[in-house]
Amino acid sequence: MSTATPPTTTVEFLALVRASGIHPPAQLEERLAALDDDLPPEPVRAAEVLIRKGVLTRFQAQQLLAGRRRGFQLGPYVIQDLLGQGGMGAVYLAEHSKLRRRVALKVLRSQRGTDRLVSVERFLREARAAAALDHPNIVRIHDVVQQGDAHYLVLEYVEGKTLDKFLARGGAVSVSAAVGYIAQAAAGLQHAHEKGFVHRDIKPANLIAAADGTVKLLDMGLARSMTSSMDNLTEVLDKDAVVGTVDYIAPEQALGGARVDVRADIYSLGATFFALVTGGPPFRGSTSQKLAQHQMKPAPDLAAQDRTFPPELAAVVSKMLAKKPEDRYQTPADVVAALAPWLSDDSEQKVAIGLSGTDQGSSGRLRATLPESTTKRTKRFEPPPPEKPVRRSRGRGIAVGAVVVLLAAAAIGYAIWPTEKPVDSPNKPVASGPGVPPPNPETDRPTDAPPVPSSPPTAPRTNSQVTVTDGIDGLSVKTAKYEVVIDKADGCLSSFRVAGTEFLRNGAALAGGRTTARGGYFYYEKAGHQGLVKLTDVKRTNPTTIEAKGGAFRVSYEFGPNAVTVTAHNATDDTVPYYVLFDTEEVHDVVNGAGEQLPLPVARTQGDPLDAKWRTTTWFAGPASVKLTDETADAATKIWGPFSEFRSQVWESTAKTYNQVKFKLEPAVGAEVPKPVLEPGGVLVSRSGPGRRIQTELYEATVDADACMPSLRVNGVEFLRSNINVSKGAYFLPGAPLPPFDIKQPAAATISAQSDKAAVQYEFGPNTMTWTVENRSDQPVPFFIVMDTSVTAVRNAKDEWAKVPAHSGNEIDPKWATTTWYAGRAKLKLTGGTKVWGPWLDKFQVWEASLAPKEKRVVTVEVGLTDEAEATKLGELTGVKPALATDLLLDAPTDYQVFQRRTEFQGAITVRGRVRAPFDRLEVRTTGKSLQGALPAQWRELPVAEKARTFEATVPTPAGGWYKVEVRALKGGAVVGAMTVDHVGVGEVFVGAGQSNSTNCGQERIKQSSGMVSSFSGSVWYPGDDPQPGVHDRTFGGSYWPAFGDAMYEKYQVPIGVASTGHSGTSVNQWAPGGELCRWLVTRMKQLGPHGFRAVLWHQGESDVSMEPGEYVRKMTALIRETRKSTGWDVPWFVAQVSYHNPNQVTFPNPRADQKKLWETGVALEGPDTDTLTGDNRDEGGKGIHFSPKGLKAHGKMWADKVAVYLDKELAK
Q1: In the sheet that 699-703 helps form, which strands lie side by side, from edge to edge?
Q2: pLDDT value of residue 88
Q3: Between β-strands 197-198 and 160-162, what pairing exists: parallel, antiparallel or unpaired?
Q4: Where are the alpha helices (DSSP H) in 195-261?
Q5: How many Å apart are CA 972 and CA 1098, to the nearest integer?
Q6: Which of 1115, 1174, 1110 is nearest to 1139 (CA)?
Q7: Where are the domains positioned within the chain?
Q8: Residue 525 near residue 461, CB atoms below 8 Å
Q9: Mean pLDDT, range 745-769, rounded to an integer
């Protein structure tokens, strides 16, 4: 595209738009005239409006803003976006101006001389190859065009992600997904092989996964026909040249010989499989080192690297990677047959469709080999004896039992695959958006379809088994597709898990707190029932049926291998609702019978009318889903919510007088949906639980389910402080809590939150945000921003600087309407403010927009980097001049972060970040004092993927600290970016949980004395002084944690990290699995990672002194087991002995006995007996239940003494 002068006004910008030919003139003028408002005078803002209105794509706008008006058309095609660039040219997304069909245009780069001849010949060769191939797993070609000197191919456009994008974001894919991807690619290669073609460049970047999980081969640019004489020119020019990609190239291909066959593609496919499941290719090093390793070094054994990896599958990959072609599988069809035992239902169906395009010889070979694989399908991988599981790279494990494989029936079904296309089922789920899994071939077969052939007696289907066990939580039911728990105490449906994901929400208070909601239950307030109908007579009536009875109600649960049928009987004179409560922290979307896909929670009232479209719904939580079908005669179904503080989505059906509700729950696991990748200059909005996460190259933000913004990080620096007292970062604070917000995403970079009392809309740009805040009530409502203590200075509209906390005064002063806030290397400019004030809670700065009744106000937020002049001013004002940002940004480690050591003297730190400028080398240096002495001040090279701008590495580091960690990027020996973190430790990390005396409820805040204790909020590490961040109850008093940290440091001489999660006044009932507090705790544990902390310290019991003997043991055991199950490792728990109320009620026998029982049975380790802390160790002059400063210090020391008993033994191992 030609270059011109960038426009400086909107008039100039529109002139470029008109000259570009993107739209016909009349159509363009019509669309411009239809805009609601005049365009802003600045061209950048005008472009954003046109993007939002669909007049321009972002790519088109970027080119026009750069002054480029030519090159948007190629023949009848209008270019919309740049999809990628390679050695031969560029690939663009385009649309046919008449047909409105989207295609991919591959445009050959202009070259001269022999290079041009080779490029054109290879280009035409790709066209010939693609034209000869017609297969669902190969991208199809529509046309090849020469327009002047320009050559381009018109290709099928596949909306999806190439597999290298998975690796670029630093992660592996699941084994099930990888098997499906590779098998589909092999099906496409089999077709190419039969047509006489060898691809010669199989790699993740040349495999694209469409939104429905279908994988297609890309880039036939190096493909060579084994039969055509038309490839002579490039065969001569390729002679003795190494063609392919070094990470995935076959040994014989690496030698430079032109005569390679399909077995080279099989080797490359094996290397691609290895990369997908581990996060990187088989061999590392320089180009020459990799080529040598392909020749001589065996590929690593996946089963040896990861003991959870099926050894039989590892053997398949090893055979694909054999050094000699004759030792590999001889055709791609052989690869498909070898992978068949590990194919999921969905992948098997896609592979079978792909194989239907192969020739009869291939089909015959598969008929001969697939029956052998069917017996393998029943051989499930048995994990090793109970050990701490070894996690595969990027923390992904393999839940083999959750992968649904087709057994002999599928193989036999394939062997008699019909020649005509099967009829689509009219009952299949509506695929109306990304993440919607394809129909299940078993559960969604049309009723008039022929039955699926049955399996032979010698190969029983393992997924037909239903196992019912009597456990602590209740009657636990497991099949290959789901797990269910029926609570023995009330007979209700309390858990429904698919692929490890919980779909239901328990715990909300009902009937004024007299009962607690379950995942599925009748609601009734007569005949002694108090909201939740308790069905106390629970028993198994046959091996796969559980029946629960209570008074006039009865619920029958029938369990099959693929579904659960619930029949709930009502024998009263009233119409009674039956509710299913979906957990919106896990379940993110619902699709109804009308095909509408809605993000959760959907704002509906309980009084909304019934609607037949809710009779069939499909609920999505990542790749897992549950289809809920109301089979009640004359069904009356609806959804409403959000309900309770948990913001559950309620599905409701009603059982009429002396009638029943009947519904079916059908689980499914679809193909793993690739996570979106942030493009340069772009804005990425993604789901994060019930909220949203926003990412650009300069900042990251989160918007939660109640419309608040709890986090805003600019260049890695956190500006907001949430979860302290009432603060939620950026939020409304009226006189009473706001009603639930209806959260929507009306545009790709816009989040809207609406309620009847207030509304806010966030619009995100690469380095700007526009917040439209609205007070819809009849009372004044403030909108607050609470600044983190990282913010040290502010500048107002009159260029007046002040240290924070600053106070603008009680009178409104216009000069504070626009302010710029500084936090070291980053800054934040705000407009639309009313006043600033502080300190709040002794240290926090507050920005306020005071909204009058019915007022709507626009707040603009501009993020940026502190410049040299500003840094100098900050140094003068605060006494500390910040270091300026460079082109390197570290996301980890962060200041005061502590990493859990692995042995007494050894551990590791994670170094993760990104570099904005090109670089060819990355180095790290760690300095400071370890337990064994000072570290050498030497730079170490970090491994970085070729051409990657992001990096992540685990760096072995001795136990000790604080360390200074320096990371730098170099280009040609010159530093292009660097960043330093001053306080990083490798020591001991602990998670705290429980009620008030585990959190910030002490009489006074205390501080650490060692300076070696830090606290983790869930997103940021802070020096470990009170109040502790990250607690669920947002209390802000004193805690025992600083004293505990000091005592631990005194003994072990390593930094101590703590993460407190407790909530005051809570019973163990409120920490039950599935409840809010349990999830809060597990989230913090997961944030620290597998083996990322030493233990959980539990201090709770004061609220449970009236429990019956044994009840506390049962419920604590369930909680501990849930956390271990959710985190995937055997987390050690310490449980304190505690029941103290006041000087007259020092101890209570039941909780103390149960706490001791937990120690004796090995469920938990022994914690301190804090009932012994009486007198002036308690607040209110010794009369209170919480601790005085003296008591907090004694409490911390007691914990350290108990932990030391265990830790000394661990360190001695």
Answers
A1: 684-688, 691-695, 699-703, 711-714, 717-718
A2: 64
A3: unpaired
A4: 232-238, 251-254
A5: 53
A6: 1174
A7: 10-156, 165-216+225-383+397-414, 465-617+627-669, 684-871, 888-983, 988-1211
A8: no
A9: 92
CATH no. of 888-983: 2.60.40
Query: Which one is the CATH code of 165-216+225-383+397-414: 2.40.240.20, 1.20.1440.80, 2.60.120.10, 1.10.510.10?
Result: 1.10.510.10
Contact 162, 380 (CB under 8 A): no
Which residue pairs from 247-255 have beta carbons closer than 8 angstroms and sit at least 24 positions apart in sequence? 247/203, 247/271, 247/275, 247/281, 247/283, 247/290, 248/202, 248/203, 248/272, 248/275, 248/281, 249/291, 249/294, 250/294, 250/325, 251/294, 251/295, 251/323, 252/325, 253/200, 254/291, 254/294, 254/295, 255/295
Active site residue 247: no
CATH fold of the domain at 988-1211: Rossmann fold (3.40.50)
Q: Summarize pLDDT for 147-194 with one digit per residue, the tens.
A: 777 788 888 888 888 888 877 755 678 788 899 999 999 999 998 888
Residue 106 marked ligand-binding: yes
Say how many C-beta atoms besides its own lie within 10 A of residue 1124's C-beta.
16
What's the token pair of residue 370? 């697939």
Fold classification of 10-156 is Phosphorylase Kinase; domain 1 (3.30.200)
pLDDT above 90 (res 959): yes
Residue 178 burial (CB < 10 Å; 0-12/13-18/19+)?
buried
Paired residues of 106 in beta bridges:
91, 153
Domain at 684-871, CATH from 2.40.110.10, 3.30.930.10, 3.10.20.600, 2.70.98.10: 2.70.98.10
pLDDT band of 876, cuts 50, 70, 90: very high
Instruction: Please enumerate in sequence order all residues whose Cβ is within 8 A of that of 4, keeping only pairs 6 or more positions apart, or say none.
Output: 16, 67, 68, 69
Q: Is the pLDDT of residue 602 over 70?
A: yes
Q: At what angle do helices 1041-1052 and 1189-1211 cross, to 10 degrees?
A: 40
Enter the tokens of residue 771: 């917040």
User: What's the pLDDT score for residue 393?
Assistant: 35
Q: Tokens in use for 219? A: 């880039």
State residue 1025 phi and psi, 5-degree precision: -80, 160
> Bridge partners of 108?
89
- Helices 408-415 and 345-355 cross at an angle (nearest 10°) of 20
- Tell me which residue has tokens 């940026």: 864
Catalytic residue among 37, 164, 201, 1171: 201
Is residue 653 within 8 Å of 637, Cβ to Cβ?
Answer: yes
Report which secondary-structure segment, H or E, holds 1153: helix 1149-1160
Mean pLDDT of the chain: 83
Q: State yes or no: cis peptide before 962, omega within 30 of 0.
A: yes
Strand partners, 1014: 1023, 1057
- pLDDT higher than threshold 60 for residue 784: yes
As its CATH architecture, domain 465-617+627-669 has Distorted Sandwich (2.70)
Q: Is the pLDDT of residue 253 over 50?
A: yes
Q: Can 465-617+627-669 and 684-871 be said to share one CATH topology?
A: yes
Considering the entire predicted model, what is its pTM?
0.53
For 80-89, the pLDDT digits (tens) are: 988 877 656 7
Residue 1098: name the closest of 1074, 1131, 1127 by CA.
1131
The DSSP H or E segment spanning 603 is: none
Q: Which range has the worst mean pLDDT, 551-565, 569-583, 804-818, 1126-1140?
A: 804-818
Q: What is the DSSP string of 383-421?
A: PPSS-PPPPPGGG----GGGS-B--HHHHHHHHT--SSP
